[in-house]
Design goal:
The protein is α+β, with helices and mostly antiparallel strands and 637 residues long. The chain has 3 domains: 1-30, no CATH class; 65-254, Alpha-Beta Complex (Penicillin-binding protein 2a (Domain 2)), CATH 3.90.1310.10; 258-614, Beta-lactamase, CATH 3.40.710.10. It has 22 helices and 23 strands. Strands 2, 3, 4, 5, 10, 18 and 19 form a 7-stranded mixed beta sheet that branches. A 5-stranded antiparallel beta sheet has the order 12-11-23-22-21. A hairpin with a 5-residue loop joins β8 and β9 (237-244). It is elongated.
Length: 637
Amino acid sequence: MRISGIKTLLHVKKFGPDHQGHRQKLCGGAYAIIFLSMAVLVSRLSYLQLMNGKKFSELSQRNSVRIVPLQAPRGKILDRNGRLLAGVRPCFNICVVRKDVKNMESLLGKLLPLLNEPESTVRVRVRQMLNQPAYLPAVIKRGADWDEISRIEARLSELPGVVIDVTPGRKYPYGSIAPHLLGYLGELSQEDMDSGRFASAAPGDLVGKYGIEARYQAELAGRKGERTLEVDSRMMLKRVISERKPVPGDDIFLTIDLDLQMAAEQGLGDQVGAVVALDPSTGRILALASTPKFDLEAFARGISTKEWQIVNDPLYRPMVNKALQEAYAPGSTFKIVMAGAALQEKIVDEATTFFCNGSFKLGRRRFRCWNRRGHGKTNIYKALAESCDVYFYNIGLKLGVDRIARFARGFGLGERTGIDLPGEQRGLVPTREWKRKKKHEAWLKGDTLNISIGQGAVLVTPVQMASLVASVANGGTIYRPGYVERLVGPDGVTEKEFACKERGKLPVSLKNLSIVKKALKGVVQGRHGTARKCRIRGVEVAGKTGTAQVVKQTKRRQSERMKWQCRDHAWFVAYAPADNPLIAVAVLVEHGGHGGSVAAPIARQVMERWFQLMAPKPVIMPQRSASFRAAVASLAS
């Protein structure tokens, strides 16, 4: 009817002038309607097909197709001998595909009783799901155990949108060895995404948050794969359309020795502190321990709120790497710097002596020596071996703060060592200018006396002191400490090898350095040395003890009766063998007391273990038969 009406309107027929004009108007209106309708139709088709064709095509595909990302197996972390420190194991995760959930509250009501997880934690994860595409599985429970998996599997048909995903997770064959160095993994957060450091990661992915895991995230992570699946209306798999396999991450071989690391951690035990062991000839780290430790397995399975509170204890600070993220007064270990500076500046020589009667008077104030009876007539050998404070008070005043600061920086203090880990502290080498800006006070001679024995404002880290004693041991070369030996690709081919770079040379001549080294040998091997507890049978050890005050004490014997956090820090730095060093060690025990009695035995335990590992293995001859032995005997006769 509509078409015939239009034809009637358009039919050519003779009319009068008025009818002719009316007919033309009707025809024009009809053409306008047709043109407008066609324009709207073409415009809509263009919008759907050209501008949003890809979008609607993807929406259509998702009705029957699911694209599942395939996580790449994370690279392994191994010690210098190839022993596995952090490997890969299957991790079962409970996930929810938000697109397939009609009523989230109803789903949670059925799911929560099946999970060994607090409701608050699950609801936080559900809220986080809103930050990622609705068609991707979102993890609401990572590292589910077999009981949880079996309960959910049995009721999966009642839980629309719930899927069980298997991804590569971390395993630690030797437990929590070197956790501060290895680091841990955590879920990608919004803050991580905003930082731009994890370009290839997606919400819900595990990424390195600390230590090596964070520093070498790109190398360890590998490249994701992808599997395209066709599913039916009940989300049951019909077929695999395509698959791109993931590429495993690189393996990292460390310079750390597992046995030595264990010895360092066992030596520290329940005490709070750090041990750093270096190869003095290369700068490579052989062991790096910090205590208290934290449980790597807890992070691997998903750390609970209670566990997180424990590892963030404000008094013991388990999450702080004491080897490089904390700075302490060095105590008498700083006397190595003072001795080198005084010799180099010709303030003293081997024959120069000062008399120690147990204290040093400056104005109306007396600065005591740790030995109240005094050391008597003291030269540089005796001063270092017996740690005479009065000797170093004298040379400190003669050097002055400016020269002390210059030599301290020359020994690598007051600056980061460059170890490739986040959070390294610079420490502090105080100067006149520093005190004026920081405290708005002038530098006093009493300040100089304090820093001359490693007290006052001077601060160092254990890794700095390990680097310092290693540079003394090797004859003056300061290395940037390194802990990675090589990266190995998934095909087993070495992709990159690492070497420790030189940072500089000690500002002390070889002649003067040899005097310091001879004196350091007396600290351990001398009759009255302060580190006699570090003696090792058959090996000459050189080192220096240190006891750093935390609070002012009127009597030294009161230290053991004070609160733990007010007691002295115990230091010991050493290298061995003294004439051909193979290992250099720095030990710090927070609030441990005296360096010679607390820190030195730990260093001894570490060095003894190293020499056991370095000793040549006995050659075991194969067993021979009786006939063979008889034949040899007859030939001999």
